[in-house]
Amino acid sequence: MIELAVHSWKLKLPLTLLLMAMIVFVTVAPAKSQGLQPTLDLTVLSPCVCSTSAVYTFHVENPTDSDIVAIAVTIPAGYTINPTYLTSTAGIVVATGVSGSISPPSTISALAIKTTAISGTFEMFVDGSPEGTGMITVLPTQTTPGLWVGIFPAIPANVWGEVTFVQGFLTNPCTVGAYSWSPNIAYYPNRATVTLNPRTGYSNVVTINVCSPVGGVVTPTSKLEILAPYVVLAGLAVAVSAVVVVKRRKD
């Protein structure tokens, strides 16, 4: 689009005016956001070591008046993607969420991310309509981070979006520590990029903990302890029966 526009300007404008027009385009376009920057952050429930029970939610906001065409997210080293979802079976839901406008604040659309016929490639749906695909271009290992390009295939101007991945999609690392989900990048139509930092009060760092077992302390129990209440009840029943028999004989 930009190349075609420049080419048409060459037919109508002298070289000096062309250069001036290009300078104005380059200097004015980035100022559209008026100092506002898009953000991306995440929250996690139950970040236990080697756990498939953790649930990850990603929140992105684009307060500028320029559309974002894709967002790339770094997956920290040590994480794994459940192979069940690295499949050629299309239509499996891996995340659901919502989106809306930033100003005025509103919720306007339902989001869903599903598997496609290509392993590692996922498609986002907005109110049931396909809106682009994203791909895990690099799978994380124990020592190297992974990369998901297009986790949000597009974020229009003045729009926020949030998706929560299904339980078991991501497996936490087996080592306790802090894991940074960054750098994360937003791509614009003119191929410019912006680093996505978290919103104020949020983070792109997940702390993995050792979770205590649920249910308290387990101790051995003898059979006598289990039967003791029943033995007492049986004794009471015998005693009551004896009293009744003695009373009848006196009568």
What does this 3D model show about the protein?
This protein is α+β, with helices and mostly antiparallel strands and 251 residues long. The protein has a single domain (33-208), classed as Immunoglobulin-like (Sandwich). Helix content is 21%, strand content 34%. The protein is built from three helices and 15 strands. It has an eleven-stranded antiparallel sheet with strand order 1-2-10-5-6-7-8-9-3-13-14, with no helix packed on it. A hairpin with a 7-residue loop joins strand 5 and strand 6 (109-115). The N and C termini lie far apart (113 Å). Mean pLDDT is 80; it is low at 1-34, 215-221 and 242-246.
Rounded to an integer in angstroms, the radius of gyration calculated over CA atoms is 31 Å
What is the count of structural domains?
A: 1
Percent of residues in helical segments?
Answer: 10-25%
Strand order of the largest sheet: 1-2-10-5-6-7-8-9-3-13-14
Number of strands: 15
CATH class: Mainly Beta
